[in-house]
């Protein structure tokens, strides 16, 4: 009965870890959970009483800490193996729910790639829709104005003043590629920073 209670305690702990590992594929979650189970059972030397299981679990850390460490290690290894922008962005998304900084990194990454894509798309469309693609200065009926970048189906007169003209092509390409590169580098930095933070938490 005592053994059953110890195993039930372990199962509850591992279920909590599993919930924090949701950003990983199921096969990787199962692998992490199996490794943790094996580690705890080794520590208790085949005698999983509630007290021994509790001591082994306390040595591991809270479910959130254990999940954070394993998730950052796996994401970091994937990013270091393939540093493509898509892989880095996917890694940031997986880590976004683990900390406030992770959420901030996700917001910055999506914003940066979104603006970069807008400039590149507008530059690519400009030769084929010169009167509809651009950076527009839009009056709002007062002394102030707003800016919008992209392609519009409305006549230019209804959209306000187009500011860049043909300069949109070189400027759009330069800004789009430059901002995309900076966002990618920020993503790499963020993954590595979160990995170091998770390791310090385990030290």
Q: Can you characterise this structure?
A:
It is a single chain. This protein is mainly α and 203 residues long. It folds into two domains: 1-60, no CATH class; 82-203. Helix content is 70%, strand content 8%. It has eight helices and three strands, in the order ααααααββαβα. The chain has helices at 2-20, 26-43, 50-60, 63-81, 85-95, 100-125, 156-159, 168-202, and strands spanning 133-139, 145-151, 161-162. It has a three-stranded antiparallel beta sheet. A hairpin with a 5-residue loop joins strand 1 (133-139) and strand 2. Helix 1 packs antiparallel against helix 2 (26-43) and helix 1 runs parallel beside helix 3 (50-60). The model has no long low-confidence stretch (mean pLDDT 82).
Total of domains? 2
Q: Radius of gyration over alpha carbons?
A: 25 Å
Mean pLDDT: 82
What spatial order of strands do you see in the largest sheet? Answer: 2-1-3
Number of helices: 8
The unreliable regions are: none
* SSE ordering: HHHHHHEEHEH
How would you classify the helix and strand content by structural class? mainly alpha
Q: Total number of β-strand segments? A: 3
- Looking at the structure, what is the overall shape? rod-shaped
The helix fraction, in percent, is over 70%
Largest sheet: 3 strands, antiparallel
DSSP strand (E) fraction?
Answer: 5-15%
Q: What separation lies between the terminal Cα atoms?
A: 35 Å
Provide the descriptors you would attach to this structure in a database record.
single chain; 203 residues; mainly alpha; 2 domains; three-stranded antiparallel β-sheet; 8% strand; rod-shaped
């Amino acid at each position: 009965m005592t053994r059953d209670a110890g195993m039930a305690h372990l199962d509850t702990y591992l279920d909590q870890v599993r919930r924090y590992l949701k950003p990983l594929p199921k096969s990787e979650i199962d692998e992490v959970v199996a490794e943790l189970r094996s580690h705890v059972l080794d520590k208790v030397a085949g005698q999983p009483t509630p007290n021994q299981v509790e001591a082994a679990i306390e040595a591991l850390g809270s479910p959130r800490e254990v999940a954070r460490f394993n998730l950052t290690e796996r994401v970091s290894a994937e990013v270091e193996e393939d540093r493509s922008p898509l892989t880095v962005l996917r890694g940031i998304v997986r880590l976004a729910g683990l900390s406030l900084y992770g959420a901030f990194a996700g917001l910055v990454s999506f914003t940066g790639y979104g603006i970069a894509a807008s400039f590149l798309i507008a530059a690519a469309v400009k030769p084929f829709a010169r009167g509809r693609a651009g950076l527009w200065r839009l009056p709002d009926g007062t002394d102030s104005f707003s800016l919008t970048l992209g392609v519009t189906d409305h006549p230019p007169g209804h959209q306000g003043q187009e500011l860049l003209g043909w300069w949109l092509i070189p400027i759009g390409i330069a800004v789009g590629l430059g901002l995309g590169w900076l966002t990618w580098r920020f993503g790499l930095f963020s993954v590595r920073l979160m990995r170091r933070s998770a390791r310090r938490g385990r030290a």
